Amino acid sequence: MIKAGIVGISGYTGVELLKLLLHHRQVQVAYIASRSHADKRIDQLYPFLKGFSNLVIEKIDIEKIKTLDVVFLALPHTVSAGIVKDIFPHVKVVDLSADFRLDIDVYEKWYKVRHPAKELIDEAVYGISELNRDKIKHCSLLANPGCYATSVILALAPIADLIDDSVIIDAKSGVSGAGKSLKESMLFCEVNENFKAYAVGSHRHVAEIEQQFGLNNRVVFTAHLLPIQRGILSTIYVNLKRAVDIKIFDEFYKSEFFVRVVDNPPQIVDVKGTNFCNIYPALIDEKKLIIVSVIDNLIKGAAGQAIQNMNIMFGLDEKEGLYPAPYYP
Question: Model's pTM, two decimal places?
C-alpha cells in the first residue's frame, strides 16, 4: 500500500482529496494535517465523514511527512514551497498550490512575491495528466495545474499549433473555487441570485495557459463567479491559421478516459462530482472555432487530477480511486 498524507486537510480541496483516497484500493491515508485544526478528528470537522474516517488532524510535522510515500500539499502559495524545501526529495510531492507551475520570472511577476524555493523549479513537472504523462511517470515533484487553466488547456491542446493571433476565454466558476476562507464577496447574500466578473485581465491562471502554449500576451481571459457550489464552464474563441476538420478533437483524445469530446454543448451537471472534462468544439467557419469545456473545479480542476497524477507517478491505473459517476440532478 502507498502511504499518503494530505497537508491542508481543512480546505475544500484537502477534504476532496481524502474523500477520493478513501476509495483508492492502493492507498492508505496515514497522515492528515492542518495549520488551524490540529488535534481534532476529521469527522468532527466534517460530520459527513462519520463512519468513513476517524483520522485525527495533526500539526505539520516535517519528519513525519518524510516517512510517507507521497504527500499532497493543499496549501496557499509560498507556504507550500517552504514545506517542499524541507521534505524534497525524501517523499514524492503533489503540490496543489501555484508554487511550481511557472518559470521563476513569470511566477514572481504574477504572484508578486519572491519564490521561496527557486532551486527546485527545474525538478517540477506541470501536471496536465493527458499532455505530460511521460514526464509525470518519472517525476518526484508534481505541480498540479490551476482549475481554470485545466479547463482551457485541455480544450486548446488539439489545435494549439494552429492558433492565429489572440485566444479569447470567457470562463465561469462556482463559489468553491475561491476557497473556504471568509470573504465578504463570497457571502450568501453577495453571491445568491447574482453573477459577476472578477480579476478582469489579471487572473493568475492566464500565466499557466500562456506558458503551456507559448501564447505570451495573446490570451484574453475573463473569469466570472456563478451562484453555484462547484463546476467550471469555459467558452473559448479561436481564430485558426488554416482550415481544420473538427474530428481532430476526437482523434487527439481517442485514448483518453477522462476527456470526452461531446456532440452537444456540455453542462456543468454533466461532470459534477467527477474527474471528467467534457469538450464541445464548434466550427463557425473554416478558420473560426468556439470550444466549450466543463470540469468540476474541485476534482478535475484540483483533487481528482492530483490523484490521477499520483497514479501515473506510481505506475497505477489512472482511473483508480476516480470512478464516481456524475451527480444528477
Answer: 0.96
